Amino acid sequence: MTAWDDLSAGALQMLENFDELTLAEIAAGAASSAAAIQRIRALHRPVEHRGRTICVECSGWAAGSADNPPAEHPCATIRALGNQEAS
Ligand SMILES: [Zn+2]
Predict the structure, then answer these.
(1) Residues whose beta carbons lie less than 5 angstroms from ion ligand 1
(2) Where are the domains of the chain?
(3) pLDDT tens digits along 8-36
(4) CB 46: neighbour CB atoms within 10 A?
């Protein structure tokens, strides 16, 4: 006996369809979020600069020089993403 046993066949079918749509939306959302996090990690990637590991994006690093004050990597943006390894 579950909470769903009292539902009509039509209601059960609606619930089943809703769950499939919802799960598809959740899966699509998760994949999209994971891709966005990968793009952020790629943008805020580490680079060796004068003996230090700095963030390419935050330091404005290009062609061996930094346009901004060198920002240690992991920068605030990478730290905000948490400690999960990039996949
Ligand atoms: Zn950064």
Answers:
(1) 44, 55, 57-58, 75, 77
(2) 9-81
(3) 988 888 878 878 888 899 999 999 999 99
(4) 17
30 CA to middle of ligand 1, Å? 23
Residue 84 has pLDDT above 90, yes or no: no
Query: Is-contact 73 53, C-beta < 8 A?
Result: yes
User: What's the CA gap between 51 and 3, in Å, rounded?
Assistant: 63
53 in Cβ contact with 64 (< 8 Å): no
Can you give the pTM of this predicted structure?
0.69
- What is the C-alpha to C-alpha distance for residues 34 and 13, in angstroms, rounded to an integer? 32
50 Cα: distance to centroid of ligand 1 (angstroms): 17
In the block, tokens 């990968």 appear at 38
CA of 73 to the centre of ligand 1 (A): 7
Q: What element of type H or E holds 53?
A: strand 52-55
